Amino acid sequence: MADELMVEIVTPERMVFTGKVEEITVPGSEGEFGVLKGHAALLSGVDIGALSFTQEGKKRNFAVADGYVEVTATKVTVLVESAERSDMIDKERAQRAKQLAEEKMGKLAKEDPEYDKAKASLDKALIRLNVADKN
């Protein structure tokens, strides 16, 4: 297809996805944004959130966390700490992580540096559960 865009999703452990897509939506640090072939070049931070793209008319969803994205007119490279495809997310594990994070946050003062870590863990668990439900 002439209107395809090359996408790579990479974590420190492995190449999670590489292939041509029609469009991609990324949870950028300044808000969610979409990319089509021919997009202006940009660099952005990636926040905890849902990344999705359309490939061969089918929408695919990933839970991603913390990283960077580089966009050119023909390629999007997503470098993140973690990326999980919706059908690979263990919902029970995500639910346990959510409960543990909520319990930890309940025991900490908001000024405690550990509170922010627990909040990030809660955000990741919630995104994983949300993305898993899109499968």
Quick overview of this protein structure:
The protein is of the alpha+beta class. It is 27% helix and 46% strand.
Question: What do you see in this structure?
Answer:
It is built from two helices and eight strands, in the order E-E-E-E-E-E-E-E-H-H. The model has no long low-confidence stretch (mean pLDDT 94). Strand 7 and strand 8 form a beta hairpin. It folds into two domains: 83 residues, F0F1 ATP synthase delta/epsilon subunit, N-terminal (ATP Synthase, domain 1); 44 residues, Single alpha-helices involved in coiled-coils or other helix-helix interfaces (Up-down Bundle), CATH 1.20.5. It is globular and about 50 Å long. Strands 1, 2, 3, 4, 5, 6, 7 and 8 form an eight-stranded mixed β-sheet that branches. It is α+β, with helices and mostly antiparallel strands and 135 residues long. Helix 1 packs antiparallel against helix 2.
List keywords for this structure.
135 residues; alpha+beta; ATP Synthase, domain 1; Single alpha-helices involved in coiled-coils or other helix-helix interfaces; 8-stranded mixed beta sheet; globular
Topology:
Elements: E1 5-10, E2 15-21, E3 23-28, E4 31-36, E5 42-46, E6 49-55, E7 58-71, E8 75-85, H1 91-107, H2 113-132
Parallel strand pairs: 1-8
Antiparallel strand pairs: 1-2, 3-4, 3-6, 5-7, 6-7, 7-8
Helix pairs in contact: 1-2
